[in-house]
Amino acid sequence: MKRIVKILVVLIIVAACVTLIVLKAVKSHSGASGGGDDDDDAAKPAESVETVVHVETGALKLATLHQYVHGYGTVQPAPASGDQPAASAQLAAASAGVVAKVPVVEGQHVEKGDVILELNSGSTTAAFAEQELQRQKELYEHQNTSLHNMQNAQAQLDMLRVTAPLSGTVTKINAKPGNAVDVSTVVAEIIDLNRLVVKSDIPASDADDVKSGEELQVLTEKPVTASLAYVSPAVDSNSGTVSVWAPLPPDSGLRPGQFVQLQIVTAVHTNCLAAPAESVVTDEDGKSTIALVHGDKADQVTVKTGLRDDGLVEIEGQGIKAGDTVVTVGAYALPDKTKIQVGNSGGDETSSTNANSSAEK
Prior knowledge:
Shape: rod-shaped
Radius of gyration: 45 Å
CATH class of the largest domain: Mainly Beta
Mean pLDDT: 86
Strand content: 35-45%
Largest sheet: 14 strands, mixed
Low-confidence stretches: 346-361
CATH architecture of the largest domain: Beta Barrel
Structural class: alpha+beta
CATH superfamily of the largest domain: RNA polymerase II/Efflux pump adaptor protein, barrel-sandwich hybrid domain
């Protein structure tokens, strides 16, 4: 009996020792893990911190916006239209011969009918033909020759002279005294530099927006404004383009053959509500929004967009007006009603929208 009691006492002591060792180990592990001052503090949840997004802002405003068709073109002499002849001409002799005289130089202004070139044909010279014409005129005045003879003398002279068919500037001379020429030889070119056009071939997909009378702007260092005079009703099957041209003002300063950038104004919206382009965010479904600033929050507002011009986008939406502040830099993927802090364009933070809200009050 005494032996049984002794065994029980030993077991109790061993159990107590094991329990003490386990408690010390648990406490030691808890202290090593930095669990706080006590079990209650460790059990407390961490307090949530509200996110503040740093942004830049701009303002909605009323503006006049344009829609353009952009392209490239070349400056050319005006084509014949209505009662106006073409503004350029390539000259050829009426008969084969040898060039005897070229009384003009490139760059010289000539009037219609001025002599550009004279030929010798066989034994006949332009000088002799002119003398014969004068003799026939004098005889005709005294009724000593027929009208037919006088007209033949005129025709003979015309065969040996090349004259200007229009007033303009001699831009090319392709023959000089001693050269042999025939009726297919272009001996000179004349352009009326006061009647130039800019011609462009625009994609057929843009042609529906382009109409005669619309404004065309040549984007040279000193921009030139013209008005479309012609829009082709046909599409070039090889290039898929439509030809258009506009007459240039006489003082445009542009030259024939010059390659220029241009734009055609196809729509003008005046006094429309516009937002900075970077403030308008459009998702993959085509839905557009702006982040409207109210105090220190940015509220997402759905808008309908229109023309885009010069860094601005035409918008329509409920409850928005000129002067409203919108998020520009930082607008993309900004959640609704996010707390924001505004910084200037240089990236330095100026003040939070809490200060802005106080100022508004």
